[in-house]
Amino acid sequence: MDRDPEGKTILIVDDMPANLGVLTTHLEREGYTAVVAQGGEECITRAHFVQPDLILLDVMMPGLDGFETCRRLKAAPETQDIPVVFMTALTDTGDKLTGFSVGGIDYVTKPLDGAEVLARIDTHLTLHRLRRQLARQNEQLQEEIDARRETEAALRRSNAELEQLAYVASHDMQEPLRMVASYLQLVAQRYKGQLDADADEFIGYAVDGAKRMQALINDLLAYSRLGTKARPFEATDCDKVVDIALGHLAIARTESGAQVTRDPLPRVMGDASQLLQLFQNLLANAFKFKRVDPLQVHIGAQAIEGAWRISVSDNGIGIAPEYFERIFVLFQRLHGRGDYPGTGIGLALCKKIVERHGGTIAVESKEGQGSTFSFTIPR
Fold this sequence. Notes:
Blueprint: E1 9-13, H1 17-29, E2 33-37, H2 40-50, E3 54-58, H3 66-75, E4 84-88, H4 93-101, E5 106-109, H5 114-191, H6 197-228, E6 234-237, H7 238-248, H8 250-256, E7 259-262, E8 267-270, H9 272-288, E9 296-304, E10 307-314, H10 346-356, E11 361-366, E12 370-378
Parallel strand pairs: 1-2, 1-3, 3-4, 4-5, 7-9
Antiparallel strand pairs: 6-8, 9-10, 10-12, 11-12
InterPro entries: CheY-like_superfamily (IPR011006), HATPase_C_sf (IPR036890), HATPase_dom (IPR003594), His_kinase_dom (IPR005467), HisK_dim/P_dom (IPR003661), HisK_dim/P_sf (IPR036097), Sensor_kinase/Photoreceptor (IPR052162), Sig_transdc_His_kin-like_C (IPR004358)
Keywords: Coiled coil, Kinase, Phosphoprotein, Transferase
Main location: membrane
């Protein structure tokens, strides 16, 4: 039998029928459901069957007394959580300590005062409900913790598999691809002009395809290592990171004729190597998609609530609004390879880096008027 969903079922145990009658009447008048037993054995049987929300248990009873009855109730898994309040005329401190030692939670003294009994019942039922709610919340929390641990373990396994795949891509796949590219280039150099024009063109296509495959594998490798080779966050000076990025891009910057300006950039908590990749990709795009001379690129920084917003703006070719989301998706390109080289991974990599740092990335642009890529990093 299930407990009363409102927690209002009380089992009253007393060997005196008169006491049972008075308590039953009083409790039922206050909206409780009263169940009675006249001895310890009957109490244990009724408690197992009824599953009351609280037991009022007389101490002095023939046969099985209240202390032993309570001890047996607490020893049984089905009844161990039911609160027990003793009813007794005993006033000795030792008797009360015995009651608490066997699992009782309170005493009411005979002759009983109806208001006191109700007050104690209400208090203990409320506390019991709160304890059960807390226990359920703890169980749910433990389930969530266990689920998170399983997820983390699965993620670790996945990362290990991804790292193994990255190893294969960087060694086993790259080596034969380098051989194909090298021999194709050798054929192109040695036999250029000796075959017909179509043959020269076909060899050129093959060499170009091998090089593009190498670039694609290298970019995929960089993308996969964002998770497997990530470093702990540390205080990072973005000004120094941009200096390094511009150094790496010195040739591209010179060829584009870009004039680069910047605001003072903040120190942030981040992975310096990944932030370098982020700035390098955004600046490389700005240098690549040039429209007019002089190409102007500005790196801005603004403090907003709880974060820094850092931007890379240019006066390049711009992007149509319908492509704002698409450009951050892996392998998505807006231009043919003949117009602008690339694998379509750079901005997807930027997005993954920013999200790992707890921020967001977005673009504002007008076709033919330039673009502003901005990302946030928590302060």
